[in-house]
Amino acid sequence: MFTHAKRETMIITVTDKERTSEKFLIFTDGLVLECTDSLLEGKMNSSDIYGSMKIGKTYRIRAYGFRFPLFSMYQNILWAVEVDNEN
Question: Could you tell me the pTM of the whole model?
Answer without folding.
Answer: 0.86
